[in-house]
From TrEMBL:
Residues 1-22 form the signal peptide. Keywords: Signal. Residues 188-354 form the Peptidase M16 C-terminal domain. GO terms for molecular function: metal ion binding. It comes from Hufsiella arboris. Transmembrane segments: none annotated. This is Peptidase M16 C-terminal domain-containing protein. The keyword Signal applies.
Length: 444
């Protein structure tokens, strides 16, 4: 298996090398005070992403959902030159895409088209960015859809446990805010207020532009400069990163009438740009496999147990299961964590996961849109867009000790949340732990 994985990696490296040779080197330039990052390509697909940095840091908790709704309104409510239908019809004629979306760290307004259609699509993209209409009737429609989606999520256990976990773990912090909003917050939003909010964050201090495609540098500079001509500078903005540390185990339960019980744990993780980041990414992928094997295969406690590293301005490690036996789950979890922190991962596990990680990275970044998203994410979160090109070498250099040390540094005390039948869970096991140690005499 190991030899097979290395063969795949060698193939991917060869493809990556050929791609790199076939493309010109990526570059950055400042255009009217905004950083523009360009990855030239030899294909005929154009992907342009305008990033608004800040995410949940841009609005108060009482206005959650306002940025998400604004991103949707840019194309769903028409512009000063086109109503919604004529705007979409113009895009459909050339099979192009223009739309926006938001997450906890930033928002994206993307444009995707064939190079030959650039002159037809760019003006539409420009309209959506600079003269969105926020038509009252269309705004009411998209707000109604957003509220309906939120209500539907309330009955979906996976979505419910994620929101519950965030509300407990990040209480009082920006990351407790849900980008999609809440029913009460969305209900109060008006088109006028949302439009004003959009104008307040669509300024040069918040913006980043990423272009992946075969366009002349001078043309890019001219078009972006024209786009930014009427955009205000805005107050200086710096995306804030915050560490998340859990100093003692906690447990919060919420009774829900689900078919089974849902458990999620959140603990800290390294911030983007710190030395442990790549090593922890590999460690959590190995842990996810071990977690799945122990919880489902060996003990039959959950159909789809998960463990993952959620990176962002506040990075965390997460563990999640749906189970009828939550007390048995925490015993298996504690035993696995204790074993790995004591004995460490195996050398072949780390070697194989590095290969798997990099293979996935190559496959994931085959498209222009994926490359643009990778560049944007690395620039916003790491302040280093070039990491999207250098990360492969960084991961290849990781040692067994790097990965074990990163896991030991961050996996520990956990914020546990639970939804389901509260009579079937013993909070003491989650708070005190189940592994007997000299400094933890509790044994169950």
């Amino acid at each position: 298996m190991k030899k097979f994985l290395y063969t795949i990696l060698i193939t991917c490296l060869a493809i990556g090398s050929q791609t790199a040779n076939a493309q010109e080197e990526a570059y950055e330039m400042m255009v009217s005070g905004v950083k523009v990052i360009v990855q030239p390509t030899k294909n005929d697909i154009l992907e342009i992403q305008t990033i608004i940095k800040g995410g949940v840091q841009n609005y108060p908790a009482s206005k959650v959902g306002i940025e998400s709704l604004a991103m949707n309104a840019l194309t769903e409510c028409g512009t000063e030159k086109h109503d919604k239908n004529s705007f979409k019809d113009a895009l459909d004629k050339v099979s192009a895409y223009v739309y926006g979306y938001s997450n906890k760290n930033y928002s994206v307004i993307r444009m995707n088209c064939i190079k030959g259609d650039f002159d037809a699509v760019w003006p539409l993209y420009l309209e959506a960015l600079t003269i969105p209409k926020f038509d009252a009737t269309e705004f009411a429609r998209i707000k109604k859809v957003a509220i309906s989606n939120l209500k539907a999520q309330e009955s979906q256990p996976d979505a419910a446990i994620n929101k519950f976990a965030d509300s407990i773990a990040f209480a009082g912090r920006d990351y407790a805010k849900e980008p999609s909003g809440t029913v009460p917050s969305l209900t109060k939003l008006t088109p006028q207020e949302t439009k004003a909010y959009y104008k307040s964050v669509f300024n040069k201090a918040h913006l980043l532009v990423v272009v992946v495609g075969n366009l002349d540098k001078k043309l890019i500079e001219e078009r972006v400069n024209a786009m930014l001509a009427a955009v205000p500078q805005g107050s200086p903005f710096q995306l804030k990163k915050s560490s998340f540390r859990v100093y003692k185990n906690t447990f919060n339960a919420e009774p829900r009438e689900f078919a089974t019980n849902y458990v999620q744990g959140i603990t800290g993780g390294p911030q983007p740009g710190t030395p442990d980041f790549d090593a922890f990414s590999v460690a959590m992928r190995i842990f996810a496999d071990r977690h799945f094997l122990d919880v489902r295969t060996n003990n039959g406690l959950s159909y789809a147990p998960q463990a993952w590293f959620s990176s962002g301005t506040t990075s965390t490690a997460r563990f999640s299961v749906s189970t009828t036996q939550p007390d048995k789950y925490i015993a298996v979890f504690d035993k696995l964590v204790d074993q790995l922190k004591t004995q460490g991962f195996k050398a072949d596990e780390v070697a194989n996961m590095k290969v798997e990680y990099l293979t996935g990275f190559y496959y994931k970044n085959e498209t222009n849109s994926a490359q643009a998203s990778s560049i944007a994410s690395n620039e916003v979160l790491f302040n280093n867009w070039k990491r999207s090109m250098t990360m492969v070498n960084d991961v290849k250099k990781l040692t067994l000790d790097d990965v074990n040390t990163a896991f030991r540094n961050y996996i520990g005390n956990t914020v546990w949340v639970y939804q389901g039948d509260t009579k079937k869970v013993n909070p003491v096991l989650f708070i005190n732990g189940t592994v007997k140690k000299p400094d933890n005499p509790v044994s169950h």
